[in-house]
Amino acid sequence: ISTAETDENLRLWWQDNFGEDLIFGTRNGAPYYWDRGLGISTRATALSAQSGASNTPTLVREILLSTTDRHVVAFGVNPLGESTLDPLLVRWSHQESAVDWTPSAITTAGDLRISGGSEIITAKRARQEFLIWTDMGIHALRFVGPPLTFGLQLMASNVSIISPKAAINAKDAVFWMDSENFYVFSGRIDVLPCTVLRYVFDDINLDQRFKFFAASNRLFSEIFWFYVSGDATEIDRYVKFNYEENAWDIGALSRTAWIDADVYTKPRGAASNTVYVHETGNNDDASAMTSFIESSDFDLGEGDRFMFVKRLIPDVVLSGSDTATIDYIFKTRDFPNASLSTDSTSSITASTEQTFLRARGRQGVLRIQSDTANIDWTLGDTRIELRQDGGR
Predict the structure, then answer these.
(1) The pLDDT value given to residue 372
(2) How far apart are CA 239 and CA 250, in angstroms?
């Protein structure tokens, strides 16, 4: 089933805290309120059914709390006194109240309508504002105080977001994925340079874009985007960015939900009715896990020279077993469109100082991998001795 915004759309949930209580709901559905004081055995009830409720939203795309001024803000919501959702309307409650949404001379409740685009896709809390993505651009909603309470500012046109869950907060910034690029907001909007851009966007199923989502792993300063590749209908790949090292990598992994390390000491991901604890252990459910890292092609000069590789000095820490080994695999090719061929495989132990090999080509690729159970490894700076070689 396509996940474009239709009557058969994915059932996406949103949630945010109001103090120790919880406001939550489904996209384009009614908001609910759970009162922690009533205990975990008491179910949430509709926001409109709370004591003192006044003109509360009955249909919303998403609700977030403005943490500095304590307004509850709804993005894509039914107008005051109406029962049909306006996909460009923003409404907010009276300050310090989740249930009073009636504008008056004695409340700070109100609304604003975005003038550009046809619908709000999603919103995200940033440091001093909310970022609001429409199908045509990005706006910032900022608290400006009385009498207006909030103000809207257009931040960028012709930039949007690929799905409602494709933005994530990390390192005092907001990172997100659009349909042709990655972006970051840290006071201004910038394109995030990506070394694997074409790998991702040349093989992606945009019909399933509402399934895409962003996730963070703060233990290693990483951001994931899980997405559906071109021939698939469910999430089967990820692209990952390390914002401390400005490094990208890619992989095949199915995850449909994720929670970072916070309440739990390790991040957790879900897929196929199973919850996985990440960053713990060395094996794949008691079986050996094949782990690897592979470089992109490298060459000499402009790629017009042959190289001859004769020695490799490994830098890797192996632990978990006295007999642990890891393979350094060197591949070459003579032309950019030629297939890679394996020239050398060296089995490295924790005490290996150097290894000699013979590899020759215009371009080289180094792959480091292990398929041994009960070991873990940390890679350092690998050194390769090579020289320019002739054409024969």
Answers:
(1) 84
(2) 5
Residue 308 and residue 360 in contact, taking contact as beta carbons nearer than 8 Å:
yes
Contact 168, 216 (CB under 8 A): yes
DSSP for 258-301, written as a single string: EE-SSSSSS-EEEETTEEEE-S--SSBTTBPP-EEEE---EEBT
Cα-based distances in Å from 283 to 98, 287, 298, 369, 382? 47, 6, 32, 14, 25
Beta bridge partners of 33: 23, 45
Residue 372's nearest CA partner among 293, 295, 291, 315 is 291
Low-confidence residues of the chain: pLDDT under 70: 1-9, 322, 391-392
CA distances from 313 to 221, 328, 386 (A): 28, 10, 12
pLDDT at res. 392? 56
- DSSP code string of 254-267: --SEEE-SSSSSS-
CB 152 within 8 A of CB 198: no
Q: d(Cα 32, Cα 234) in Å, to the nearest integer?
A: 29
Measuring CA to CA, which residue among 79, 93, 117 is closest to residue 23? 93
In whole angstroms, what is the distance from residue 354 CA to residue 131 CA? Answer: 52
Residue type, 238: Y
Q: How do strand 298-299 and strand 376-379 relate by DSSP bridges?
A: unpaired
Question: How far apart are the C-alpha atoms of 183 and 108, rounded to whole Å?
Answer: 33
pLDDT of residue 6: 47
Cα→Cα distances 271→192, 254, 268, 283, Å = 28, 6, 10, 18
Label residues 266-291 b or e (16+ Cβ within 10 Å = b). Answer: ebbbebeeeeeeeeeebeeeeeebeb
Looking up tokens 């090579």 gives 386
Q: Convert the pLDDT of each residue in 84-115 to its tens digit.
A: 999 999 999 999 999 999 999 999 999 999 99
Residues 6+ apart with CB under 8 A from 131: 123, 124, 138, 139, 140, 155, 167, 174, 185
